[in-house]
């Protein structure tokens, strides 16, 4: 019974991360943080499921490593390029006519 509640809690937290990702439109950094939160909730769900099935935790460590590296590389490169071109990370400062 407690495993079901734990899985339900992880799924609800993942859904909250999705809602924050959809509703946050002002800063790029907030959207990247919500994406990282969703990845961490998926990692926790995967970790608990693998432990419940008595599998090894190597796959969860590979998943966490690749997700963190992907998030750092893509998020930091987008953030640096936005700040260099526009001076800030506000989405409101963009104009479609500039493209």
In short:
By secondary structure, the chain is mainly α. It is 77% helix and 0% strand.
Blueprint (SSEs and pairs):
Blueprint: H1 2-23, H2 28-52, H3 58-86
Question: Which key features would you list for this structure?
Answer:
single chain, mainly alpha, Helix Hairpins, 99 residues, elongated
Describe the structure.
It is a single chain. The chain is mostly helical. The chain has a single domain, classed as Helix Hairpins (Orthogonal Bundle). It has 3 helices and no strands. It is a multi-pass membrane protein.
What's the story with the biggest beta sheet?
Answer: none
CATH class: Mainly Alpha
Overall geometric form: elongated
| Strand proportion | under 5%
Low-confidence stretches: none
CATH architecture: Orthogonal Bundle
Q: CATH topology, which one? A: Helix Hairpins
Q: Give the number of helices.
A: 3
Order of helices and strands: HHH
- Tell me which oligomeric state these chains represent: single chain
| Integer-rounded radius of gyration | 17 Å
